[in-house]
Amino acid sequence: MNKTHLKALLLVILIGLSTSLFYTSPVLVLRDIITNDKVLTLPLEPYKSFTMRWIHSVELEPWEESFLVDENLNIILSSTRFKAFGAGVPESAGERVETEDGYIIFSEIDQLMPNLSYGISQTAQHQLIIGDTSYPLYEMLPNDSGVKFQVESTPNFEKWFFFQ
Predict the structure, then answer these.
(1) What is the C-alpha separation between 57 and 35, in angstroms, rounded?
(2) pLDDT, tens digit, 9 for 90 and up, residues 98-140
(3) DSSP 8-state symbol, 19
(4) pTM higher than 0.85
(5) DSSP run (H or E) holding 96
(6) Quick one: how far is CA 45 from the chain centroid?
């Protein structure tokens, strides 16, 4: 390979690396509801969705809410999954209602959630699920923490260096 070809190859590699370093990806940011401090930051790609799972305080049954992230980084409630109707549970939500493995599932809800927050507790055992990974928030955060969820766009170089 002559010097001209080598220089061209190196230039293409450098452009590719610099482009990929500054390309942005969505990250899920959990902030303390009182101080607004970041308590957890997790990459969302390639999923662009997440689920919160916990034990309902009255029914003592698992409950799940699943969310999508749109192209404008909005959090959208897409579905909810639970075992039994109780106080505060609407009779329906979304476009579809079905049962599966003993759960009632409301789907195609498509509700914008500009102020999504949860109170994290040992009792409810809140878990955040992204893809196949479950994050036991009740073990990672102080008991009775209030956290709000936001999606931000982060340059890839931050993800590579700070999310390990």
Answers:
(1) 26
(2) 989 999 999 999 999 999 999 999 999 999 999 999 999 999 9
(3) H
(4) no
(5) strand 96-100
(6) 10
